[in-house]
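Input.
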Amino acid sequence: MKLENVGVLGAGTSGKGIIRSLAGAGLQVIFCEISEEKVEQAIQDIAESMEQEIARWWLTASEKKLILSRIEGTTDMRKMSGAQVVIEAIKGDLEDKRRLFGEMDTVFPKDTILISTSATICVSDIAKRLAHPERILGMHFSLPVPRRPVVELVQGRQTSKRAVETARRLAAMLGKTVCEVFEMPGLITTRIMIPYINEAIAMVMEGLSTPDKIDEAIRLGFKLPQGPLAMADEIGLDTLLYDMERMYQSLGEAQLRPCPLLRRMVRENHLGKKTGRGFFCYDANGKVIGCPQDRY
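Output.
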């Protein structure tokens, strides 16, 4: 079966990156959001992100136009029924996911492959009550999705070979390297990333150094393209806190307990790039323009 049509449920940070990557790979993409305003905003955000790619000579204006022509938004999941693969990219706990996949199980034909992008909820737990659990598996994309060449693939206890083969073909079309992972909250990337970022946030809270100097030490010391605090801002501090809380509840390890400073920044809506301020301040194009001058 040739893959041509893919659906995406949710157009948050991860969802928009997935939509952009799918359309950039030549696939027709239909995504679903809860309101027309969110649909329009998602398309606008994707278009603006591609303008930044054009400015860096990664993309041409004609390529942007072609990619956008492959993207369609809707507020009605039933309009996605022609998709061969549907990728879920929404926030929510286990019961939220079960409700959503229960609806997907009835809306989409039984040969449609259903994929969860969650790194902290096991696929088998989502699939437990479904009529067709064999078609469900997990694919966790690292952020930012278009620029990270890896995807973690997770089979549930009843996932079929056909579902796995389809996911592998999709990953290949996106230019991603597949890392197969056993079911466990956090998988590989999230389980390593959370304590790494959490410790950097604790250093800021303790006054050990400023965010820019902490990131600079890590970048230069380990030859990394990005420091942990810039990574946190890119992921979104609310998303990071949500994942940390679920990981801590599941595994109970001290290094997974969210730093109090992270909780405070989320309460104050300093969420990173998406709000223009996190550990760094950002302009309208998401470019760093400095560190906040007031104390953390």
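The chain has two domains: 5-181, 189-288.
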